[in-house]
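User: Predict the structure for this protein chain, please.
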Amino acid sequence: MGNQYDGYTMRATFANIYMGNLRSNIEQIRRRLAPGVRLCIPVKADAYGHGAVPVAHTAVECGADYLAVAVVSEGVELRKAGITIPILVLSLPQPSEFTEIIERHLTPSLCDSELIRMLNVTATAMGRKVPIHLKVDTGMGRIGCTAAEAPELARLIAQSQGVYLDGVFTHFAVSDSLLPDDVAYTRRQIGTFQQVIDSIRRLDIDPGICHAANSAAVFQYPEAHFDMVRPGLVVYGYYPGDITEEYLNGVVGGKDAPSAVHLQPLMDVRSSIVAVKQVRRGESISYGRQWVAQEDCQVGVIPAGYGDGLLRRYGENLQVTINGRLYPVVGRICMDQCMIDLGTDSSVSRWDEVIIFGPQEHGALQSAQDIADKAGTISYEITCGIAQRVPRVYKDE
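Assistant: Here is the predicted structure, written as structure tokens:
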């Protein structure tokens, strides 16, 4: 009944991570890039829930030039695991993290003179020269200097002893939308970013690696590829917003064309039926008695709940695959368990495998995107939300 995982019997609920799909997705991204354009793979948030260290090692094997993380501790984890290529830290660091950044050879993102000066003081005292990527806000409205501030900040970095300008970058707000206003907005962001690069060069300062393109822009805005791209979601097998598989394959000439795009999700989450209950008409299931059987039926129990990442708010919108058929979750999802309506004449038995979501190629009838659509969210949240207590099993297929 059990599965072996790192020397102990694995629990019923686990996630398979298909590394062959990762390699395929990276290759399809590569085909969209001009020669010389570098590839930065984001592995923040534990590689969107897939496992940062295994994904990072495979990304490096596939020729990634950079990795991107959100916080310093994520970069430290990769360094301890033997990753040696450049690692860009996307969020602003705390001054208390500067020493760790320098010792671990991480590349911070900075966007104001105070942090630049503080890092310069620390780096100079340590006898080091640290690469910086200057973040420019061209319309995301999050972190970043303004386009007008960027040239003088570049000058400050260039004149500092302990730091140097290794790159300049920005982030798009609506590149995954095909609405005309959003397309125009993205093109304005690209134009503003190009103006920033030009203004830095007019000061006889090398801006370093210029990068802007996220997942959607890799496919939709080749003019935004600059020196490097940062595809996130598409690496993990999902399409961003309006940039769907159907849209992309229509653009490139059909799904059988040599340049057709077919991304494959890396993760599936599986469990098993651990109990089958006979439920009579009028009996209720789970907390709050929100679901009441309308007829005599069978209800299966699977040992997975919101403690594993199946959020309570998914409720009865969640379905699972058992023996090639979809069955709905009923009643409130509990912390460690949820219940499945097996109907009145079910062939489902105790210990039958359950696929909560995953790629169709491996038997799933719904993906993380399907769950996200029903829950009113995005696929990122579904995969990132799978808890650490759910073991990841890496399959090289």
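The chain has a mean pLDDT of 93.
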